Amino acid sequence: MPAEFISVTFPNESNDLHPQPQAPIDPAYLQRYARTLDDYGFNYTLIPYASSSFDPFTIGATILAHTKNINIIVALRPNTVYPTVAAKALATLDQLSGGRVVVHFIAGGSDDEQAREGDFLNKEERYERQEEYIRILRLVWSATEPFDFDGKYYQFKQFISNVRPTKGHIPISLGGSSDAAYRIGGALCDIFGLWGEPLAETKQQIDRVYEEAAKAGRTDRPRIWVTFRPIIAETDELAWVKAHKVLDQLNANREKGLSRKPVSSAPPANVGSQRLLDIAARGHVHDRALWYPTVTATNASGATTALVGSPQTIADSILDYIDLGADLISIRGYDNYNDAVDYGRYVLPLVREGIRAREEASEQAGKDGGKKAAA
Ligand SMILES: Cc1cc2nc3c(=O)[nH]c(=O)nc-3n(C[C@H](O)[C@H](O)[C@H](O)COP(=O)(O)O)c2cc1C
């Protein structure tokens, strides 16, 4: 499977640098953003979920209606939709778009955030429920006869769906860094999502997911998705100047109460964010260009690690992760639309060129090996 690129969709111009709290949907912006991603060869766009945010299914339908190739990744918290309903909603979108739908599971990292929509399970239970939910989706998409389900969290009788995914299956992704995330993602999912950590820590997480896949008796492995927020400029020096401006702006927004996490907020409860903060405490720059002050400035609220540099530096850094086995690369910036254009123009072609060069080198090595064996 060749490496593919993921972006993130936002429904209006609000972004982490210039937040516009409670801005309504801007349909023209959404269409332009989605078409730009499509035109520049992004393969997927994530539609994230938060208790206060827009409905990801209708945002997804709009993106699909205005694009030709890009796949949507619908972020889904099991507490928000009954699984048979979600299975049909996803399959409906999939049929409407000729098979351009992926679902990304979020067990929920914060008890307080989950409680906002009536979910009072603890995290362990949320992961347990998520496992049942994923099993139900698979059954709904494949069953040819009415079936019963008798789980701990869901029970129903004689359900059958007439809405099937276009290719028989919709890829299932999961994001998280706790043991339960590795176990369920490794055992059941097609894709496993990570936030940007240094190469050594990323390798450690990939190995954990693969271990769980093997333990579950799988002969295949989930694809690995890794997420960065690149800060790009013509040269490395200019990119570092820009990075410090981004950081100043994030800190100023937080001071003014404009960021997603107020200055007084408690340490995050999800393991993924805790890991990011631990790594941030060990140093600002890791590997070639992975930058952590943006993590600290936002209390690690979601994907917050930057890659800083010229297009070549960013591309080389991404290729390091592709070499490690992460073949789904999520890049979104701090200035969403303009960064997507820059990545599409300058980064995607360089990474794809790097992949081609690696393929040619390995083909050549294969030919040379064959010649030696024949001699
Ligand atoms: C790639 C990726 C995307 C994510 N997208 C979302 C999202 O849209 N909304 C959300 O609440 N959490 C999102 N998360 C966060 C986790 O799914 C969440 O914190 C998890 O349920 C618990 O994390 P833990 O297992 O690391 O403790 C995402 C995580 C990853 C890795």
From TrEMBL:
Recorded coiled-coil stretches: none
Domain Luciferase-like: 7-327
Keyword line: Flavoprotein, FMN, Monooxygenase, Oxidoreductase
An example Gene Ontology molecular-function term: monooxygenase activity
Pfam families the UniProt entry points to: Bac_luciferase
Protein name from the UniProt record: LLM class flavin-dependent oxidoreductase
Source species: Ferranicluibacter rubi
Lineage: Bacteria, Pseudomonadati, Pseudomonadota, Alphaproteobacteria, Hyphomicrobiales
